[in-house]
Amino acid sequence: MSIKLQDVNYIYGIGTGQEKHALKNINLEINDGEFIGLAGHTGSGKSTLVQLLNGLIRASSGTIYYNGQNIYDKLYNMRSLRSKVGLVFQYPEHQLFETTVVNDVQFGPKNLGLPQLEIELRSFKALKMVGIGDDLLDVSPFALSGGQKRRVAIAGILAMKPEVLVLDEPVAGLDPAGRDEILGLLKKLHNENNITVILVSHSMEDIAKYVDRMLVMNRGEIVLDGKPSKIFCFEKELEKIGLGVPETVKVIHRLQDAGANIIGEPITTEESSEAIYRWLV
Amino acid sequence: MIPFIKAESLVHEYSRRDEEGNITGINRALDGIDIEVKAGDFIAVLGANGSGKSTFAKHLNALLVPTEGTLYVDGKDTSDHINDLAVRQSAGMVFQNPDNQIIANIVEEDVGFGPENMGVPTEEIWKRVEESLKNVGMYEYRKESPNHLSGGQKQRVAIAGIMAMKPKCIILDEPTAMLDPKGRESVIKTVKELNIHENITIILITHYMEEVTAADYVYVMADGQIKMQGTPRQVFARSEELIKYKLTIPEVTKIALALIKKGVKIPKDILYVEELTDILLKLKARQ
What we know:
The structure holds two protein chains of two kinds. Helix content of chain A is 40%, strand content 22%. Chain A contains eleven helices and ten strands. The radius of gyration of chain A is 20 Å and the shape is globular. Chain A starts with a strand and ends with a helix. The mean pLDDT of chain A is 92. By secondary structure, chain B is an alpha/beta fold. Chain B has a domain at 40-66 and 77-232: P-loop containing nucleotide triphosphate hydrolases (Rossmann fold, 3-Layer(aba) Sandwich), CATH 3.40.50.300. Chain B is built from eleven helices and ten strands. Chain B has helices spanning 53-60, 84-90, 107-117, 122-135, 151-163, 181-197, 209-212, 232-236, 239-244, 251-261, 273-286, and strands at 5-17, 23-37, 42-47, 68-73, 76-77, 91-94, 169-173, 201-206, 217-222, 225-230. In chain B, strands 6-7-8-3-9-10 form a six-stranded mixed β-sheet, sandwiched between helices. In chain B, helix 3 (107-117) runs parallel beside helix 5 (151-163), helix 4 crosses helix 5 (151-163) and helix 5 (151-163) runs parallel beside helix 6. The radius of gyration of chain B is 21 Å and the shape is globular. Chain A binds chain B through residues 41-43, 145-147, 172-178, 202, 204-205, 242-244, 246-248, 250-251, 254-255, 258, 260, 269-270, 272-274, 276-277, 279-280, and chain B through 47-50, 96, 150-152, 174, 177-184, 207, 209-210, 246-248, 250-252, 254-255, 258-259, 262, 264, 273-274, 276-277, 280-281, 283-284, 287.
């Protein structure tokens, strides 16, 4: 299973005289079970790209294949694509609206027209996956904390049984404990349920800690694609396009620039302190 | 000297109401806050979601008034509504989402909106608009539509809009939560410069540890109380307590602590990249 984009272009406002070429010749293959970090400054095309993936918007040119099938094919079931590729928007808790937590999570599966038993099974399972206990099922979602609300919103998407989960800045505005909670949850979903995760993030620290493959966008193009440890070698280039590297990587680069013989490409705090220690003693 | 901000046993209670409007419960968001901020200080307030830090910010701007205790801003009691306007002119507020704060179609008109409402003469308004946009490094964008700006640029325009009202103090409530790394850096740099060059008192409310290192003094809030205070160095040296309050320490400090655990002799209050690398290189050279 995979998502494949072939020569995809997206232009906003065609024919209005204010055209904006938001995506330029994107060629990308996302494989089953990958944990991908998507980075890029505001306006680089990240959000446009993720909206293409579940068919919310249609490419101006080019083709997208989901599991080998062209999603722009006349006979393709776009509705099923939207449940297979779950999109969690920024501040998803703003979209909570039901009177109880469990009703909110059931809204998606209900719209799929599933039998009541299946709806209930799916919603209980999704809430369990995100760690919302039974004591909160009948509580108003608005009475929950920021981190809890966000987990309920994610459960609403999980209840659709997506194969791919795309999250746009899922930890924006959360405190450090809340960030770890959500990102740890994603890692767990990825490991235990083999869900493909695409994490859109401004935080290089989070990308360093969690993802296997990193995509960097600039001006509508994918300019870097690879393991975070390799991509963070391009510190100057990343800074030029409004991003940067984690503080830990800065420490390693400064030491290396001063002649320190530090081996490997450590990126997390654990890896970095280990590498520095080996060099020191 | 009279402190610019002085909170004494400040308490704020939100009451929960049922559908008929009867009070069903009380939520103590601020529970006996004592803070003194001198004019010209750069203060950071650190706290997890729900710790009460935004409620405190709203008090500084007289958007909320104390349930108990007192709060003086620029010598004025905020609980007296007669002072509302004066308090808001002394202490301007910048919020998290730049899109909710920008109202005009052109950058310079947006910045001029505040002083215009205060009845400042037109000529003076334009002078202030120019000055504040230059202060935040956005003067070259004065004729643009705010829609064409990045998040960081919009947030700097919002700060310019506050500056044009000539406040003595700016309160920023998580101003960088929605920004990319470059935008975040530009906002913090701007705030620091306003503090140093214009002597504006800064209250920065955040949960990004790296931003706190720009402040002179840090208060850590949890459960509506001040749990810790000190210079960034003093506060970040107490990592276990911070983690207990759902916070953390900067990445650089984490590396230093991990090295100390392995037996490397370095201070445990290191905050900056260059600081750590200098110490490590010196240590290596001595071997």
